[in-house]
Amino acid sequence: MQEHRRYCSQLLVLLVLFIISLYVVPILGKNGNGLIEVDVGVILDADDQMVGKVSQTCVSMALEDFYALNQNHSTTRIVLHKRDSKGDVVEAASAVVGYLPDMVYRSLINYRDLTSIELPFAAIDLLKNVQVQAILGPQRSSQAKFVIDIGNKTQVPIISQATSPSLSPADNPYFIRGAQKGSSQVESLIAIVQSFGWREVVLIYEDTDYGRGVVPFLTDSFHGISTQVRHRSVLSLSASDDHILQELYKLKTMQTRVFVVHMLPFLASHFFTKVKQAEMMNKGYVWIITDGLTSLLDYMDTTVIDSMQGVIGVKPYVPKSSKLENFKVRWRKRFRQENPDVDIFEMNVFGLWAYDSATALAKAVESSGIGVSKFKKPVAKENLIDLAVIGISEMGPRLLQSLQNIKFNGLSGKFHLRNGQLQPSSFQIVNVIGKGEREIGFWTRKYGISKNLSFSSSKNYSTNNDDLGAIIWPGESNVVPKGWEMPTGEPKLRVGVPVKGGFTQFVSVERNSQTNAVNATGFCIDVFKEIMDHYLPYDVPYEFLPFETPDGESAGSYNDLVYQISLGNYDAVVGDVTIVSNRSRFVDFTLPYTESGVAMVVPFEDDDRKNAWIFMKPLNMDLWLTTGVFFVFTGFMVWAFEHRVNEEFRGPPSKQVGMIFWFSFSTLVFAHKEKLISNLSRFVIIVWVFVVLVLTSSYTASLTSMLTVQKLKPSITDIRDLIQSKEYVGYQQGSFVEGLLKNQKFDTSKLKNYSTFEQYDEALSKGSKNEGVAAIIDELPYIRLFLSNPKYCSKYTIVGPIYKTAGFGFAFPKGSSLAPDVSRAVLNVTEKNVMTKIEEEWLDEGATCAEQDGARVTSDSLTLDSFKGLFIVAAVASFSALILFLSIFLYENWDTFASNDLSIREKLIAMAKTFDEEKDNSSDASKRKPPTGEGMAVPATATTDCPQSPATSDSQLAEWIFSPDEGLSTTETSIPIHETIEMVEINEER
């Protein structure tokens, strides 16, 4: 029994020891001090003194500094397993070469840099034999992509300082970029080019993943600021000196003088040495280098630096701090101990990124709670590839999540990972001077270019080169290079000019009979000379070449002249060349420097003054009819108001109708003799008289104008009239107007071309029926000049513009950098008095004709629209009076209107009879008939001396007694009026 108990106790002890071996020992770690050791691989280039060796020391010091600072509460310890990316794993690689993944194997076969073959072997060795939880490096973009592929397969985080944008954390979830992406510097490079206004650049880059990665971003960004990438020069890492020189001489023959170089020091050392040898580091050249080279200038040989004097570069800005300075001192001492045979003891940003990356990894390992982890291996099968045998890391996803949330202030600045990569910071702009570099400014994403990093709250984004310090350019020049020059040994800018017999004010070409030198003059030539000589930011030598045949005649139309640029015969065309769409397919035009448009020149017409019906033309037909209607309407209103109370508006129907027309029309001359009794009539007439006053005044003014100024009316007002009447039409010889007229469906047989103003005058004077033309169709600048001559401005006028054009412009080859620069210069010239002076010199002949500014053709007849307001007022007044009149009339006859004994027809008849009856106005009757006994008696002789005929009517007697102008008057005797009427009645009875 005791033996059984002892046996059980032994089994219990063994079980406890087994549990301790499973759980306690891994927690305590391999060193037995309670810390968990985490294996991390480091793949760096041990032969690279500028980056590899510097980074190795930085990584070791980073972990030492981290654990020294956190020794009291740290539970993990990273153990580094270093591998050389170039040599140390060759033997190990040969042991696993048969197990390489097909993907990696195919990539290696096609890849140009054969030194990278060792990288997958080093990574597989670390993963298979060491089972590392993360890998730091490699730093070269061409090497990193293979290790990143392996990390994605095994779910092991790869922390690399590879900057190529082609390596994206978005496509590789286990890739952590512990550096700024190469494309983050593009905006700073663009800002520099934009600040100096350079419009063309040449990209020069190495033929590697690092070199090719940034090029698409640069090209797109330059296009965004209207700067053209004129050429791309790609150099292999193994390019010979002769090949580099050959490429440089090719670039030297181009016009562009701004070069952006994107390469690492290995190739850059050879390249810039040859640049100086090719004499391309002289005055007028611009060389801009990217951050990969700028950050490593301290490691370049002095002879290379001497060949780079005047170069501008950008690099990530590293904030200064006491912590950084202390680290540099410790690093130099440590680096001398580890690399006694290396003479370079300068820190660079890649080493600082390596230090911060190692610190970030240590923080992530500490915060993730990672333990001793193994790789999950698949079920054993035959013929598994090596990566499948390795399996998948158990702690990789947890460690990756911790890394992505890391944020702290490192030696390189703020170390903040977002979307798997370090966020960009400010960039420092430097100028290579003397034995090294000199700071000239900074670039930030928010404020652009600035001399320092102290910003006011009101500062905006700037690309002003004044915000940079003084720059010493290549050739020890302090003058900003123009960025574009004529190539060495190339001829001057060949400028084609048209040859023409007339219109010499615009362009004229003459040859010196002795020297055969070309002398071009004219308005267009002077504008071009002013721009090229005074308004371009660089000098462009040029010469004028006439577009002519061997006998001195014009070699073709303007379309033919412009097309010579696309054929390579001219570098530009200057003259009175109009910007039209079909020409722009072959060339680039500048902005126009003259007004635009096509118009007609037609003779004045002077026949209207002889027209017998010219008095009808001051008013158009609508106004005549409306006026007539209102005359009748107003007469009717007055008759209606006066009919019951005024004897003058009563009588037979014919008399009343005549009175309606007579009274209203008599207001034209204010000659009506009928007195108005009704206040409503007076109100209507007051308004109507005002309308008549305005109408008659306007009519008189218009008729006077027609009889004196109507001679300025053009004979033709619409181009469609020319087409329909099939008149002959003239145009300028060689002009695009010929094609325009054909497109407008003009009969080709009716088109005639002319080349001088004298021919214009002769053709227009003859007319279309006498072998001349009815109109000349040409561009406005020519027509303005033609009509500025006093001989022509009184005979002809402008109709139009009938067609819009862009005006005159200078033509350059497609994609020419001169076109945008000259366009900007055109704006400067046209906005200043210099253009006015040139116009006065060539196009102003001092004419004083009113027609020279262009008579606009409008109708001379007055229209109804101008008098609508007057007629509306008259109509409102009349209808208001009519409504008031009807209201009073109905009120007075309401008994009849409201009677229930009468039908509607009978009511209307009764109302009409009442309206026709004379109104008995007692107040008026009392005024007209004084009381009996009053007044003077009629003498007795009145009845005997003036017997009345029996046929004499009461009305005739009334007419004899009453004077129309006096109303109720008496005779010269003192006989009362009523007694006289009684005596007349007695005589009639007798």
TrEMBL record:
<comment type="function">
    <text>Glutamate-gated receptor that probably acts as a non-selective cation channel. May be involved in light-signal transduction and calcium homeostasis via the regulation of calcium influx into cells.</text>
</comment>
<feature type="domain" description="Ionotropic glutamate receptor C-terminal">
    <location>
        <begin position="492"/>
        <end position="845"/>
    </location>
</feature>
<keyword id="KW-0406">Ion transport</keyword>
<keyword id="KW-0325">Glycoprotein</keyword>
<keyword id="KW-0812">Transmembrane</keyword>
<dbReference type="InterPro" id="IPR017103">
    <property type="entry name" value="Iontropic_Glu_rcpt_pln"/>
</dbReference>
<dbReference type="Pfam" id="PF01094">
    <property type="entry name" value="ANF_receptor"/>
</dbReference>
<feature type="transmembrane region" description="Helical">
    <location>
        <begin position="12"/>
        <end position="29"/>
    </location>
</feature>
<dbReference type="Pfam" id="PF10613">
    <property type="entry name" value="Lig_chan-Glu_bd"/>
</dbReference>
<keyword id="KW-0407">Ion channel</keyword>
<keyword id="KW-1071">Ligand-gated ion channel</keyword>
<feature type="compositionally biased region" description="Polar residues">
    <location>
        <begin position="941"/>
        <end position="955"/>
    </location>
</feature>
<feature type="transmembrane region" description="Helical">
    <location>
        <begin position="623"/>
        <end position="641"/>
    </location>
</feature>
<dbReference type="GO" id="GO:0015276">
    <property type="term" value="F:ligand-gated monoatomic ion channel activity"/>
</dbReference>
<dbReference type="InterPro" id="IPR001320">
    <property type="entry name" value="Iontro_rcpt_C"/>
</dbReference>
<dbReference type="InterPro" id="IPR028082">
    <property type="entry name" value="Peripla_BP_I"/>
</dbReference>
<keyword id="KW-0472">Membrane</keyword>
<feature type="region of interest" description="Disordered">
    <location>
        <begin position="919"/>
        <end position="955"/>
    </location>
</feature>
<protein>
    <recommendedName>
        <fullName>Ionotropic glutamate receptor C-terminal domain-containing protein</fullName>
    </recommendedName>
</protein>
<keyword id="KW-0813">Transport</keyword>
<dbReference type="InterPro" id="IPR015683">
    <property type="entry name" value="Ionotropic_Glu_rcpt"/>
</dbReference>
<dbReference type="InterPro" id="IPR044440">
    <property type="entry name" value="GABAb_receptor_plant_PBP1"/>
</dbReference>
<keyword id="KW-0675">Receptor</keyword>
<keyword id="KW-1015">Disulfide bond</keyword>
<dbReference type="GO" id="GO:0016020">
    <property type="term" value="C:membrane"/>
</dbReference>
<feature type="transmembrane region" description="Helical">
    <location>
        <begin position="869"/>
        <end position="891"/>
    </location>
</feature>
<feature type="transmembrane region" description="Helical">
    <location>
        <begin position="683"/>
        <end position="701"/>
    </location>
</feature>
<dbReference type="InterPro" id="IPR019594">
    <property type="entry name" value="Glu/Gly-bd"/>
</dbReference>
<dbReference type="Pfam" id="PF00060">
    <property type="entry name" value="Lig_chan"/>
</dbReference>
<comment type="similarity">
    <text>Belongs to the glutamate-gated ion channel (TC 1.A.10.1) family.</text>
</comment>
<keyword id="KW-1133">Transmembrane helix</keyword>
<feature type="disulfide bond">
    <location>
        <begin position="793"/>
        <end position="849"/>
    </location>
</feature>
<comment type="subunit">
    <text>May form heteromers.</text>
</comment>
<dbReference type="InterPro" id="IPR001828">
    <property type="entry name" value="ANF_lig-bd_rcpt"/>
</dbReference>
<keyword id="KW-0732">Signal</keyword>
